[in-house]
Structures
1.
Amino acid sequence: MKSIFFKMTIIAIMLSCVAAHGAEQSQVFATVANSANEPVYDAVVYLLPDSGSAPAVPPDTHATMDQINKQYFPRVLPVQKGTLVDFPNKDNILHHVYSFSDAKQFELPLYKGSGANPVVFDKTGTVILGCNIHDWMVGYILIVDTPWFAKSGDDGKIRIINVKPGKYTAHIWHPDEKGKKAPVQNITVTDGKNADLKFTINVKQKKDKERAPSPSGGPSY
Amino acid sequence: MNLRKESNSTVSVRSFFSKFILAALVCVLFTLATTSTASAADYSKVVTAGISVAHDNDISAAAKVYDHRDDTFITTNFTYGKRAQLTMSDRITYSLDGQYETYQEFTGFNNLSLGLSATWNKKLGIGREAPQMFLRLSAAKLDFSDPDRDGAKYEGTLGFSWALRNVARIDTTFTLDSRSAPISVFRENHYTSGITATFDLPRSFQFSAGYGQMRGDIPWHCTGNFFPPAPSAYENTFDMIAYRRVSRTRMQAYALSYPLSNNKTAFVKVERNDTNWSFKNYPNNIYTAGFLWRIH
């Protein structure tokens, strides 16, 4: 009796180890380059499951779009649908955040510090932010319906973690992409194995900044 | 030597305009210093400087070709002031403005200008392409090497500006200005209307093209041999007789600028003025190259 109990305990432990190992999340790595094979930063890769159902964002999930040195930081902010985005103003001057984009139209008029209420982004799409006082300030919020997304750094590399096994369609987005859009890629993620993607996109990267002073170009007497 | 004087009615109009501009400027600055809206507003510093070299091929504004004088001059200028965002759509900027011009040959034109200006800017909507309007008032003391030209300049400009997508920005302005001087021949009144289009070109270049019309007093110069119309006087800078006439000038200006950094710009500018008087056209060209800095 005792030996049977002991054997069943060992088997249960082994099965739980197998189950734990089988549930190990995978990672998806991607590299993004332009047609000259130079790394592209601020590119967002997101995975949409072919099954059509992705976990919803946990309630009260926040992301932050800062205003620093009269620029939006980060310039590109990807979030999952339903995320609350805070807009703290870390400059010592007023800003007036606005968006006319279909995915979210809103205004946060003249404020300093963190006084503005967060804004919930509940519709997928691209939101382009401006500042009504400082016209050169532009920021982008990409709202996706999946928790599996990441943005490329200066080296053009992306790492998406905790991806469940399954079939996905990998999409890429960049605010400065021109011409023909990069095609989507089909990817299958299996237990415990990482996947690799490579994207080439047609992009001319911009840095929105305050323009240097201009001479008076008009006629004068 | 005052050869002829101007009429009393002209003097009173000129005097009224100058006093109006000065009074309006004082009111604006007083309001900024005392109202709660202004005191609660968000202020940021505005500091800019510039230097340029220019050549004018008819600096004497002479009707006769043999009286034309050309010269090259260097201009340095600075602005020190504050900008306040009063409301979502209203911004006011006030500053101390200084400028010094030094001429290569006709040093009587060397002059220092020091004054105050205030600009109220109103944005009529939200976004980059929202139209804007502005009202600018300024008053400056002018100190020339030739003391006959010393005086003050008062200016008021009403402007309207809007952006055409990411293609161009259009600015239209209407300006009244008045200059005082010890002798009447150098006292001037003008009204000018203009329109300028500014385009962003590839590789960060910016090009602007402007057209304007000015009507007002121009001190012309001649070497004599005729009795000039009133008012007129002998003047020292060109060793000629100066006489003031109301004239109409069509002005064109073309400028190309390139940002050397976030805060520094290099530019070149070509101006062409065609002045019409007594059914004849008198052109002059000014070529300028320079740098601008935004220090704050």
Note: Chain A has a mean pLDDT of 87.
2.
Amino acid sequence: MKKKLGRTCAEMLGLCAAAVVVGLVANTLNANGISIGKNYFSLRVVPSGGTSAADPESSGRTGSESPWPEDPENCIRLDEETGLQMACFQFVADQLDLLPYSDGFVVFVDARDDESYAEGHLPGALHVDHYKQGRYLPDALPLLQEAGVIIVYCSGGDCEDSKFLATSLVMDHGLPLEPIYVYAGGVEEWKAKGKPLREGVEP
Amino acid sequence: MLLARLLLGVVMLTYAVPKIAEPGLFLKEVRNYHILPEEPPQLVNLVAVVLPWIELLGSLALILGVIRRGAATLFTGLLIAFTVAIVIRTMGIYSAGDLALCDIKFDCGCGKGEVYICKKVLTNAGLILLAAYAMISRSTRLTLESLWAKRPAAAGFPTS
């Protein structure tokens, strides 16, 4: 009995050890693999200089716990938990209407997975799957570094990938915080407001 | 025992493959349970990478009939732990909202996308029974272990 138990435990340990070795090797070889040391769920933005962006004095903005200000042309609020700038639907729609994407000044970034992006994304949006940054960012980063307005979105609702990606762009890739906005309403709200989505991939 | 072993192996294999192909998506689902700490990130990231491979290698072990008792025991433990986590998460959603219990659906990280949780818990209960049966069964029918044990002494293989 003891021998059987010992053998079963050894088999379990052996299986787990093999899975660790094979899993790490496979993850390294997988183009979709994740980076073991990266925190994909960081939400605290501290720009270089060490001052928290959530500090209203340092950011030049007034933090607010209320929802959108009454002026729809300026519907940006500072998320005090994350330090990110949250944009309302009207701001996002205006950016899309007023500035041609080809200008390069305004860049939309879709933080969702491949399938969701292909099913429908904001017209002209770049695809940067937050969990596959190694695959998408090399091409996207030069465009983002030149942009004056970067609007990051995901599905909306409970989806936090847009916030995670926006944080990563600042903390891991050195982009300045000021041009970055998170469209929390996401694709859900965009569709609910009757706005068009584009299918497939952008040229 | 043969049917239980093969059925469990094939089902767990179908769960493992999509998670290995898309570790980022599985990482997101692991995080959504809020069981593992997010700092330092290595732990939750390692679980997202290694767990699907435990499922895949365990599945192959069951299908081929090698180290099957260890694999079945591991699956029994894992399936019980997964089911408990799913139930806790479901009760959290149920107590917070207006949904009936069996109307609740989410991606449980099982490799099948969003599923109705009542159905998932029942499926898992069945898999736990299969795994427990495979764990205690003494049958060695159609296993690599039994083929190895029957290897001919005349061919020069050691017999002990």
Note: The radius of gyration of chain B is 19 Å.
